[in-house]
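Hey L., structure's done. Input below.
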Amino acid sequence: MRGRLDLHDRELTLSDLSGAMFAGRWGGHLQLNYQPDNPAANHELTGEFAIGQFDTARVVQTVFHNELASVDARIDLKAAAHSRGSLPLELINRAEITFTAEGGPGVVRLRAPKQDSLATAAVFGGAILLSPELRALGRLLKKFAEMPVDTLRVAGQRTADGEVTLQELRILSPQARLHAHGRIAAGDEPLMERPLEMSFDLAAKDETAVILSGMDLLRRKPDDDGYRPMKELFVIGGKAGQPDTRPLYDLLAKAVVGSKGTWGYLMRKVQDEVKKPKTPPPKKTAALPPP
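Output:
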């Protein structure tokens, strides 16, 4: 990290900041003003920050050492901050921040729920061929496990109490398009460990559209870009660093087993099928010679 520090009577300025973080180069500037006429909040902080081509996978693995990142790409991040307070820690904790992040190409991973992992693996690997719907589900699992993306964009803001609002999340891949918005709750935990709530709108084309259409999950008419939207939105929860994708997989399970199906219910059915003893084929008897 390097930069220039200028200190005047009521002003501190950090300029020409530069350094490296998560394999990306960053820079920015920061200004702190002392305002004695406002004793309740006698300091004002303003600043801008940018980091180019940082590695999202490193961010997640810094917090969750054994987890693969849901988004693995090189990202350009820009942010602007403003805060008022009396103590340095208060200025940092109550900073209001607006930000944008854009990047790609990369990989997005929509991980299947961990419950009944043997059954999930059986469907994923095509070992269980109970129905055309399950075979289609297996193909979708493979696509969601490692989905190449061309571009992605996130825009949002952080409020003074620490809540993060994601006004836009857009992911564009050759066969799928995700639009979303949501929030990361305020709290004392690190950002990647806080509760997440995101509402997703998924659209598909090409082979992914064929699979989802066969499961009766897509609208008939494509949009101007050739993507066909799903009939239902789905909401993902969990934590910012570990999203809970069960609502999406519950929606897929309903398409396989009916309107009352859930992912857990479907996996129990598959698990029962995996455990069934295989009936050996009947033995062939040798034909007797004619008398």
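Residues 1-103 form one domain. The chain has a mean pLDDT of 87.

-- N.
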